[in-house]
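Quick question about two entries, pasted in order.
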Amino acid sequence: MSSEKETRKQIIDKRLFEAGWNVDDHSQVLCEFEIVVEPINEFEKPNSVYHGLRFSDYVLLAKDGKPLAVVEAKKSSVDAEIGREQAKQYCYQIQKSKGGELPFCFYTNGHDIYFWEIEHSPPRKVYGFPTRDDLERYAYLRRARRPLTGELINTRIAGRDFQIQAIRSVLEAVEKKKRKFLLVMATGTGKTRTCIALVETLMRAGWAERVLFLVDRISLREQALDAFKEFIPNEPSWPHSGETEIAKDRRVYVSTYPTMLNIIRDEKNPLSPHFFDLVVVDESHRSIYNTYQEILDYFSTMVLGLTATPTNVIDHNTFKLFECEDGVPTFAYSYEEAVNHIPPYLCSFQVMKIKTKFQNEGINKRTISLEDQKQLILDGKEIEEINYEGTELEKTVTNLGTNTLIVKQFMDECIKDPNGVIPGKSIFFCVNIKHARAIESIFNTLYPEYKGELAKVIVSEDPRVHGKGGLLDQFKKQDMPRIGISVDMLDTGIDIRELVNLVFAKPVYSYTKFWQMIGRGTRLLDSERTIPWCLQKDQFLVLDCWDNFEYFKLNPKGKELKNQIPIPVKLFGLRVDKLEKAMELGEASIVSNEIEKLKKQIESLPENSIVIKDAKSDLVRTKDPNFWNSFSGSAGKESIRILREVIKPLFRTVSNVDFKAMRFERDVLEVSIAKLEDDAEKFETLKMGVIETISDLPLSVNTVAMEEELIRKAQTNAYWANISEREFDNLVIKLSPLLKFIEAGGEERAFAKFDLRDVVVEKEYVEFGPQHESVSITRYKELVEEKIKELTSSNPILQKLQSGNVLSESEVHSLAEDLHEEHPNITVDLLRRVYQNRKAKLVQFLKHILGIERLSSFPEIVTQSFERFIQEHSYLTARQMQFLDLLKHFILERETLTKKDLIQAPFTQIHPDGIRGIFTPKEIDEILILTDKVLAA
């Protein structure tokens, strides 16, 4: 626009109005606000009536009439940054002349808006003006917030040492004015609890009032809501049961990505981009940002990412999104650290590899038994034609015998419940829903005594799964079902501490997903809550039926997935390709037809998307008739370039469409391009793909049957021999809306089904994972405990001890001789090494073994003492906690410590002066008391 005045009237006034500011209401907005910057000297004659005055374009007022914010406007054709210094000076001058608080600072050219909280944080681009309530909330938070350095952390919510360190790392980053943070924490280490404790601290310290927690599935939304209600019950949350409309009077909001995307695009009930003070992104990984980046761009706030993906496989773009160096998140805590902690924070696991003959060698004449071959001949099957690779199982072929064998092996090898009869809680990871239903049917056939309750298919498509009392709720909270048969739904995010068996009945190629699936079993039991079907959990079992562990040994990062181009982007791009080819061939009618389709596709872009709003100036060009009339010569090439490089990427914002119909349209478009290019081979290949899709349409559905004539005709070669552009369009118009019926009632593609006898050819435990305990130490403990329990039935001294009576020195001596006689290796020195207690006496070991009194190991005493110290000093900085962690490991490794050690390596790696560089004298004295206490244990 040619002037600032026009920009203000046509763009900025409207954008202020969208945020609830009426520029004509002087109780809300003052335009051309007069600012006295230079008082007139009584002896000096002013140059003009405006001498010593400045005029702010807009001043936004609080309800009490005081200035809340300054908005400096520039014309749309110039960079908004030009107004930055001017807006800043106006803010200071208003404060100087009017008193009160420093106004918030905005500067804009209509399209780009920048928000600057002067003296607190750098300017940042925002996607709309704040409402009056937003600005008053900002002003309140600015007055209320306290320094986070000394703010205590609620250890009742998250009290483990690493959780406190994670929270402290984020709080310190907040104080350094950072706005994006990434926590990498292994599944089961309490990411959600840590996040809730962080939220509680920020709210209590006056840094946040409203928080948004984003998840990718409804079941995870319910889980997160329950966690917030449990740990901060007094903070009102959204949504309540049955709520669909966004409520604006809550403090904690939990939403799925699609729901929030629809909310921010809703014109009828708009949500301010300044509504939240913190956005938490659960399971932060690349696929989410490809689709829902718009949500994070829309909200002008701090963003916290949570992920269980190991640091070494998080991609570059995720670190970049959270403004972290590659490989260096805000805080990380790995599965290995959690399992090796004393006592462990997570459960270790054993892996049993099971492979069948058909999986290894395929299904063919050579591998099918003679008995089964005879039966196949009787069934009219040609043995020579049966030839499937093992990798085709559950993709193009299924064999009841193989699945039955896997179920039987599971029932033989699984960890059972306390009665030792049926499996503890278990998950079967299946290839697809058909495979899952087949596994469920096998359980019901083999074990009818459980009346169909032992194993249940739990998939997101089933409406019976969700909500209280649904299948997932039953699996989590009730005795039955014991086995959840899953296709993707139980792979990630579901927290069930009692899971003791995981069955990989499918191959997995994503390293991230694989470890998320393993993470379903890593949680330890809650010591304060006893569940009858799982009283003890020392480790869990993974039955790997598809060599997944072997695959990840050879391919540590799994299969590298290429970025997929969204279907709407691909469709638009193909249409531009066709337009360009038609121009080249001089096909005027095709050019005209494709232009109309491109216009229609551009009109379908979601206008309320911030991506589309940002690109408004580019889209305005496509509304000019001259843009479309210029498709010839160099002008045409430039128009094609704009469509391909500028407009095409915008179609990533398209979400609420029938993607099956769009895929069909894409496939037909590809065939039409091959015909236009006169590429017979490509045309034939692509045509067969379209015919195969059309053949899947279920004529048993009335709506589909209405197009039966076209469906049958489109499957003939004659139809395609001379197909016209109009017929291509007709196919798309009439058949693409019917694609949605294929899955619901479609005729299945050829899927071979057999019931052939299969056999196990490989069955072994696999060494994999962070913890493999020494067999000799384990066996020694078992031997000692078995021997002592055996002797208790006949040895009067042991019986006396078991009854709670004190033994005399002579009785202890006599008992030691008896034990040595029974087994020469039962000595106090060996017991001290095996039970890792340096000072315990024989009687203490015996009481521990007999269950009279628990004996803590030296590592347990050290670890628990340090954890209590950190909980009691939750104000410690991340660096101080890092020092304490180093000190703990130093004591565990050397079992000794001098004061001199604390000012030498390795402690000088954290600060050149060692302990003196990071702790006060009082804190050092407390640490020395702590170390003396643990070393005396």
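Here is the second entry:
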Amino acid sequence: MVLQVQASTYEAKTQEIAKQLLAATQENRSFFSSLRDQMRWDDKLLAWAMSNPGLRVQLFRFIDTLPALHSKSEIASHLQEYLGDESVELPAALKGMLNFANPDSMPGQVAATTVGTAVETLAHKYISGENIKQVIKTVERLRKEKMAFTIDLLGEAVITEAEAQSYLERYLELIQQLVEASKNWAVIPAIDEADGEPIPKVQVSVKLTAFYSQFDPLDAKGSEERVSDRIRILLRRAKELGAAVHFDMEQYAYKDITLSILKKLLLEEEFRQRTDVGITIQAYLRDSEQDTKDVISWLKQRGYPLTIRLVKGAYWDQETIKAAQKHWSQPVYNDKAATDANFETITQLLLENHQYVYSAIGSHNVRSHSRAIAIAESLNVPRRRFELQVLYGMGDKVAKALVDKGYRVRVYCPYGELLPGMAYLIRRLLENTANSSFLRQNMENRPIEELLAPPIVKEEKNSLTPNVQTRLIASLQTPNSHFLGAADTDYAVEEVRTKAAQAFQGVRQQLGRTYLPLINGEYVNPPEFVDSLNPSNFSEVVGKVGLISVEQAEQAMQAAKAAFPGWRKTPAKQRADILRKAGDLMELRRAELSVWIVLEVGKPVKEADGEVSEAIDFCRYYADEIERLDKGVNYDIPGETNHYIYHPRGIAVVISPWNFPLAIACGMTVAALVSGNCTLLKPAETSSIIAAKLTEILVDAGFPKGVFQYVPGKGSQVGAYLVNHPETHVIAFTGSQEVGCRIYAEAATLKPGQKHMKRVIAEMGGKNAIIVDESADLDQAVVGVVQSAFGYSGQKCSAASRVIVLEPIYDTFVQRLVEATKSLNIGEAELPSTQVGPVIDANARDRIREYIEKGKAEAEVALELPAPEQGYFIGPVIFSEVSPNAVISQEEIFGPVLAVIRVKDFQEALAVANGTNYALTGGLYSRTPSHIQQAQTEFEVGNLYINRNITGAIVGRQPFGGFKLSGVGSKAGGPDYLLQFLEPRAVTENIQRQGFAPIEGAD
């Protein structure tokens, strides 16, 4: 029977043990050692970071950049750029050191050497070695101090399959060498045995996601298969050599699938009896207590104990920001006291179940360790079942005090080159310098009572809309708006993945149906039908679409004309409410709409879901916008009112593309409708079924007959007729430059009977470039370029088709880009593993193939991937050593083809980026502040993305659209967009009567 002891008993014991430990860690150091520390630059940097938040941010950004800088001059100039920022208040010593005129000067070189050495020293404080030889030396020193170890290989971003295989091989090599070295180690009873049982001398800690470069909860089955194969190899080898393996926990998105994979694997006959394996629980997660209970129940069923390492968690900032950006519930506690309290709850839970689990309590907080010891001693937990852990370089004094008191202590030792280690270093520095850090508070000699007080939780433990989330989301809103976007589906949740699979089954039962045009509120029979095919499998007919005749187009135009007087008088609030209802209906049908997008235009599942979010956002954002604009503006003066107001223009023709068949069709259509215009939607032929689904939603939402009409038809006939019609007031078009320019020209010609000038809004594509400079984070840049170039097979208007790379890093970048692209899964869009699906149709496929042949004549093929035969597939193609003036550098290809251009310097990079007829999207990967600043003013694009991918603009956050030959008109999803569908009017009234007028404020 598990012995239960009252919490109050634990508390008294906790305080007693904590005070003893704290006294041991706070012993006064000698005068000479404290003097030496005051003279060390690494300690100075940390002290300054703690006392100055502005300096802390810029210093850590500089440290993050440091590994990419290859000369002292580069280090000196970046030091000046980061720390010379006006927002940073510099300590006198640092200000003096940065006061050099030229990075190449002697003072500049001295500054670079001083700070470079200090950061390296800092890194060595937290990183146990740069190679296995150094690590062995470190662990041998730890063992002399009676401390056990676990080794973690640094370098978290595994973005290629070659890197995933290398990660496994490096761990096998590490275990081999550590075990070899351990043969010469004497047995230390305190750490090598307990309760008569031997404990493995060698332990390594691994990250599950690093075993498969395309690890993704959406593809749970595929990820599990690929990861499990490599884990089995590791576990078998570890058993042969007598080493233990511990699995770390990473970002929240991977938690459930990580636990699921490990639970399945460790129930397999081969591994079920293994007790030399561990898993990790992060106490800052709101669901970690339930996860712990679930794991304990599973361990009871398994019948053999495993280690559970309990930690607070290392990705708090990242998790908080991601959840706020995605509009998801916060997975982490926002109050440190809540995390500490949860840590103590789970500690008790683990130790009360000690017959099923080996507890490893990882913390640098003396109270947390003391609590664990108090519970363990009260429950007489056997020594084998309980140990304490600290991070290398973080809790040295605490660890020594714990060892001196006879407890088993294990030190978590990261090792690896400083370059991949920098992300780890930044996390440790953040932890050390945070106001709430126990280590910092202890260093500042806070009162003992304050340091050891039980954590008091300020907020509701399970509140899912905490203050921090509200503040973060508020910071994501535009200044004059309360607009919050729809949340994308979180496929990390198993029930959500099940719902998505059911949606596929439901839609598949509806394939092959016929979709009729909607004219004046009635579905009508057209003269012609076409099949809409699944681009992933062109033998599958998604449905039949009726195409209207020119005569029917005329009927639709007359219906719109008849409906306009009533619709324009409908109050803006009423129109907005219909639109909000449409957004709500889309949210209800989200999973189903995603499936239609996947099947009709071949867009992978996650991207299809994001498109549904965008369509919902357009509905809600434009509803808010029309209410704002409807208020007008008053410019009143005494004796006169001046009112600036907006009226609808008339009839709008929307010609929408196939590449965003729901979002763009919806955005253009509802903008016209909510502004009071009657609207005809003519979608691209290849995506007319999705437009029919949008039609169902708009009709159900309540748009009256004749106000909205769905008129699929041939662009050359029906499209041209509507564009040239004298009753057309506004044309909203998204598509090719060729068609866009033709529409613009035709709309400019006054037709007989036409009494107005037509307004054209046209988005016409781009030849989008990403610049990668020598200071860029290459892990981030490679991932971002791959997503931007090959997401939806390069068929987004915003897709990257050029990447411009500075010479010093060109070869390294191309090599990693090729390996990362090779690792992508190419296949049917509906498969959860697919990252690259088909192109839209045979014409597109053949046109792209022609461009690939042109590319082969102009440049070197760095990669050409094979593709499946049964659909319209083209494997990603990368060309290197491409001239900026080559055809593949200048013309829009609209497929998975990427040109990599080499340039000498940043100035040339900008010139090449701007050297096309387009100006839609562009990207920059750089950690050089002056380059970022220069790009913001000189990179000629409508949407510039810095240190992130260049696709996926979000309504109300990144209004979308370009200039030059990329388009004409205001940005979609922005504050000016609706103005294009409205005519502004100024109404002035003289309100004086017989010489008197009301004067505000007068008696």
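Reply: The two ends are 86 Å apart (CA to CA). The CA atoms of residues 781 and 925 lie 6 Å apart. Hope that helps.
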